[in-house]
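Researcher: I'm preparing a figure for a lab meeting and need a structural model of a single chain. I don't have an experimental structure, so a prediction will have to do for now. The sequence is pasted below. Please return the structure as C-alpha cells so I can convert it later.
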Amino acid sequence: MSWLIVAPIALPLLSAAVFLCLRNVPEAQRRLSTLSSALLLLLSASLLWQVVAKGILVAQMGSWDAPFGVSLVADPLSAVMVTITSVIALAVALYARSDIGEDMERLGYHPLFQVLVGGVNGAFLTGDLFNLYVWFEVLLIASFVLLTLGGSRAQLKGGVHYVIINLVSSALFLSAVGLIYGMTGTLNMADLASRLNALPSGLVTTVAMLFLVAFGIKAAIFPLFFWLPSSYHTPPVVITALFAGLLTKVGIYALIRVFTLLFTQDVGYTHTLLLWLAGFTMLVGVLGAAAQSDVRKLLGFHIVSQIGYILMGLALFTPLGLAGATVYLLHNILAKANLFLIAGIMKREAGSYDLKKLGGLYAGRPLLSVFFLISAFALAGFPPLSGFWAKLFVIRAGLEAGAYPVVAVSLVVGLLTLYSMTKIWRGAFWKPHPTDLPETLSAGSRPLYLPVAGLALLTVMMGLWIAPVFDTAVLAADSLLEPSTYIEAVLGGREVLGDLP
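Model: Understood. Here is the structure written out cell by cell.
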C-alpha cells in the first residue's frame, strides 16, 4: 500500500495541472476542486488506517534506497496531519464555490489552492531535510500568490511583509541544511538521527538554533510572529481560513519532527528554551487578540497564542506532552479554520469585520450563532468539546513534569481566550445591529453553512469520542519518542516503491 504515501502529494499537483488547462471554465474548476478534495480525504484516511494497522510506511522514490534516494515516510504523526489537511481542503473547496468570484478563479485560485495543499502534504510526508526545504518553497510561492490574488493595496502590503520574512526564514533554513550536510554528509532524517549522536553536542545544538529560528518564523512563535497579524487579515476570508488551518501548523510540525528525531542531545537546554518560548507565545498572542476590534485580526493573534500550547507539549518532551500536542494540533486546525469561515459569513450578513459595526446575529442568524459558539468554546477549552481535552492533556503533562510557571500561564491564557471569544459574541451576536440586519439569510450565504456545519460537527465529535483520537495521538507520541522505529523503517528499505521518477 505504499502508493498511498505518494497519492496525497500527487493528486493535488495533478489537479492543479488540469485546472490550468480549464482556467477559462470556472464551473468545471469548482466541481473538480470539490471532487479532488473529497478523493484526497478518502486516500488520506486510508493512509492513516494503514499506518495505524501496519506501522510506519516508507516509499523510496526511483528505487534508490535510503539514504541515497528521496524517502517519503508516513508515521502516525504525518499520517494524522495529512488526513486533517484533507478535511480542511474539502471544507475550503466547498466554501470557495460560493465565496470566490470568477475574476479570482480566472487569476488561478483553484490551481494555486491545489499546489498549496500538495506542498503541505509534501512537507508532512518527506523524510529528507532538503526536500522539506523544497516543499516549504512550494508553500511560500503558492501562499504568496494567493495572499495577493486580486491585487488590493492591503493585500500587497500584507504580502510584502509575508514574503520578506518568509524569505529570511528560507535563507536560514537553507543555511542550516548546508551546515548539517557539511557536518554529516547526509540529509535523510533517519540517517541524520544516527549520525548526529556521534558529533559534539555543542555543535549540534548551535545548528539546532538555526532550525529553531527558521521553523519558528514559519510557525509564528514568539518573538518571530509579527508578520502573521499584519498579513492574514488582508486576503479573502476563505484563503485566510486555509492559511490559519494549515500554514503555521507545517512550521510547528517541522519543529516537532526535528526536536524529537534530530536534536535531542541537549534536551536540558533546547527543550527548556522551547518551554519558555511556548509561554511567551501563548501570552503575547492572547494579549494581542484582546486588544483587537477587527474579527480577522483578533483571530489572527489567536493563531499565535494557540501555537504556544502545541509548542508547550513538544517542550515537555514526555509521552503525554507529545500526545497532547498532537491532539491540540487536530483540535486547533478544525476550530481555527472554522472561526475564519464563520467570520466570512458574518461579513456577508452584517456587512463588516469591525465589531463596532456588527451586531444582531444572535437574533437574526441563530444557526450561525450555534456554530460560532461551538468553535469559540472549543478554542477556549470548554468541556466536552475538543479544546477541553487538548488543554487538559497538555496541562496535565506540564504538572507531571513540574513546569508550574508555564502551566499557570496556560491557565491564564485560557481565561483571556474566553474573554476574546466573549468580545466577539458581545460585539457581533448579542448587541443590536447599528442599522438593520436583513431579516432572512442571503442566498449567497446558504451554501457556506455546509462546510461550517461539517467542521463544527467534527469539533463536537472529537470532544465526545476523544478516546480513539487520544489513542492515535499516543501512538504518534510513542513513535516520536522511540526514533529507532522510524530509523529502522526508513533505512531498512521497508515498503520500497517501484520505479517512480
